[in-house]
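thought: user wants a sequence for this fold. calling inverse folding tool.
action: design(structure=
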């Protein structure tokens, strides 16, 4: 239809969202059939969703570009005011606010004053000074915490003073967000974004402004270091050798910072960064993540970072010496991303120490970029896994060909045999279990996701039972808690995977019902119960045929005949052990079993009937757990 063509044209040209309803409205005059009108409306909704997704990608690209531009400004830091103006302007642009501004703390006057503004029209506001704890900005400067107000004028959380309120009123501000500028543990100022209308600031806006504030703090601290170096050169003008040494150290630090930042911007790997830092500092270097797992090393053997050293560096914001090595925390704001350890340089000079600390900043930027890419990839892989496990060839939303192509782009060949595994852990936080499962799935060339409250893996394997047992053991040891894994397969092609997933879930439930929590197996590994679960023809009928009268009696009278019968068999047909387990008198057990005999017949405890009853009891227990 022509209307569909207009939708595609608007999508390609980036037309405003309100224009997407026009093809549908215009089409009503074409006397379309109900089916065609429904198709057009569905296409309009899909086009709007695609446009929203594209807007989100563009916004994220703009944020990353701004961070790259800011990093480039820092790498070529010459004019502090120019860098701060650029950061404030980027904050205003990215957050889409009417105004952005930056204040710095005055340790002598014990207040904070405006340094840079963008979008301000009030001279009084541009010259404003705030006492510590006064207003939103004074509170941020005092507490070193971000604060946001949807409407500052009516917000009673802050200490309002006449000079502040008059300046804010003259500027016309309502919604205000402020985040601290920190150098180590010291707050040196505040970065703000504000609107002249009321506005709520979501967490991602706070995180973005915090990242820009961190860059601004680095710029100010770098300018401070440069100014200190210039003062030292002036004071030591008569000592030519010392002056040349300082100048050489400064050039080396600037060159090193440029090289490291350029390496990150060119898409260098963690290994590339570690080799470059090791070469610059003339020692061995190891980079670890926040859990202490080694990510890369160069010029040194395997080592474990000192937890005390990492904690001290994180608290102080500087590298610290530990047993002949140097340790520096890799931070993004207050978040610990990891640590770097330098060996072979116990006598690290101040210039090299600062270079080492700046290398940690560059490492933080690289790790943040890697995490952003990994999160985006995980979302794509998770969406594919969800589509594969819910694939319905009659649905029409997905077809085998498109799923196969999407899988191939992620390195999966669905023509190979794949196993589906469902995992859970009663005491382990699901986020941590999921992170471990994702790493394992990647190493096996598969996918990992969360579905129906369980962590699910899809990995190439022809032996799902052995793989389930291995994962239960390895992930349980890593988590320090029992991890239960039910598996099924192998399956080939998207069409078989939903059924395979359902079988893996049944296997997981059966493992718990059989008391095998912390174990891993497939249906074949569950014995005779597994045969029944694998068939899944009429389990409820089986339970009803052999145990129906007892269950009906319990439902009608609120008795516990089935529970008593289960305990009787569980404890080897011992009346004394059964009564202890049930916490009743032995005569009560006898009376209940007599009632069972009346309901099921006198041969209820014969070997054949006993086997059938025990199996029915286990299936009833499994069915109760599933519901």
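)
observation: tool returned 627 residues.
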């Amino acid at each position: 239809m022509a209307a569909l063509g207009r939708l595609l044209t608007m999508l390609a040209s980036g037309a405003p969202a309100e224009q997407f309803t026009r093809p549908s409205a215009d089409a009503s005059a074409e006397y379309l059939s109900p089916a065609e009108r429904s198709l057009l409306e569905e296409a309009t909704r899909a086009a709007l969703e695609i446009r929203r997704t594209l807007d989100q990608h563009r916004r994220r690209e703009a944020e990353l570009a701004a961070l790259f531009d800011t990093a480039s400004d820092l790498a070529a830091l010459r004019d502090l005011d120019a860098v701060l103006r650029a950061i404030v302007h980027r904050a205003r642009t990215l957050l889409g606010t009417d105004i952005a501004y930056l204040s710095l703390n005055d340790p002598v006057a014990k207040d904070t004053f405006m340094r840079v503004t963008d979008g301000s029209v009030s001279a009084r506001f541009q010259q404003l000074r705030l006492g510590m704890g006064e207003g939103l900005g004074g509170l941020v400067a005092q507490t070193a915490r971000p604060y946001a107000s949807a409407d500052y004028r009516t917000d009673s959380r802050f200490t309002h003073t006449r000079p502040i309120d008059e300046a804010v009123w003259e500027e016309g501000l309502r919604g205000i967000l402020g985040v601290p500028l920190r150098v180590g543990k010291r707050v040196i100022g505040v970065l703000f974004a504000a609107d002249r209308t009321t506005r709520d600031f979501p967490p991602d806006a706070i995180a973005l402004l915090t990242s820009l504030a961190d860059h601004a703090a680095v710029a100010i601290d770098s300018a401070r270091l440069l100014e200190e170096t210039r003062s030292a050169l002036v004071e030591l003008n008569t000592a030519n050798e010392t002056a040349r040494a300082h100048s050489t150290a400064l050039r080396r630090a600037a060159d090193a910072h440029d090289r490291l930042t350029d390496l990150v911007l060119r898409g260098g790997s963690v290994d590339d960064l570690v080799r470059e830092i090791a070469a610059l500092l003339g020692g061995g270097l190891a980079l670890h993540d926040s859990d202490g797992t080694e990510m890369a090393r160069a010029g040194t053997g395997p080592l474990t970072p000192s937890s005390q050293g990492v904690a001290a560096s994180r608290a102080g914001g500087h590298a610290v010496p530990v047993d002949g090595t140097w340790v520096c925390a890799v931070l993004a704001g207050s978040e610990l991303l990891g640590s770097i350890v330098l060996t072979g340089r116990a006598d690290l000079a101040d210039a090299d120490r600062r270079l080492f600390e700046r290398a940690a900043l560059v490492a933080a930027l690289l790790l943040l970029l890697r995490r952003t890419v990994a999160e985006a990839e995980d979302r794509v892989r998770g969406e594919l896994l969800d589509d594969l496990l819910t694939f319905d060839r009659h649905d029409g939303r997905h077809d085998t060909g498109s799923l196969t192509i999407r899988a191939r782009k992620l390195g999966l060949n669905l023509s190979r045999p794949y196993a589906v595994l469902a995992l859970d852990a009663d005491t382990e936080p699901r986020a941590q279990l999921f992170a471990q499962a994702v790493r394992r799935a990647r190493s096996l060339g598969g996918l990992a996701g969360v579905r129906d409250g369980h962590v699910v893996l899809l990995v190439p394997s022809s032996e799902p039972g052995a793989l389930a047992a291995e994962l239960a053991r390895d992930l349980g040891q890593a988590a320090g808690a029992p991890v239960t894994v039910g598996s099924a397969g192998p399956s080939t092609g998207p069409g078989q995977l939903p059924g395979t997933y359902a079988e893996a879930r049944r296997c997981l439930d059966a493992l718990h019902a059989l008391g095998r929590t912390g174990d891993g197996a497939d249906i074949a590994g569950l014995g005779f119960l597994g045969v029944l679960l694998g068939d899944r023809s009429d389990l409820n009928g089986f339970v009803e045929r052999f145990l129906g009268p007892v269950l009906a009696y319990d439902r009608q009278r609120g008795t516990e005949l089935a529970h008593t019968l289960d305990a009787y068999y569980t404890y080897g047909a011992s009346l004394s052990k059964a009564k202890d387990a049930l916490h009743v008198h032995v005569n009560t057990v006898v009376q209940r079993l007599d009632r069972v005999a009346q309901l099921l017949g006198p041969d209820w405890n014969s070997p054949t009937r006993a086997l059938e009853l025990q199996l029915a009891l286990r299936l009833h227990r499994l069915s109760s757990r599933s519901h």
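thought: summarizing for user.
answer: Here is the designed sequence. The chain has a mean pLDDT of 79.
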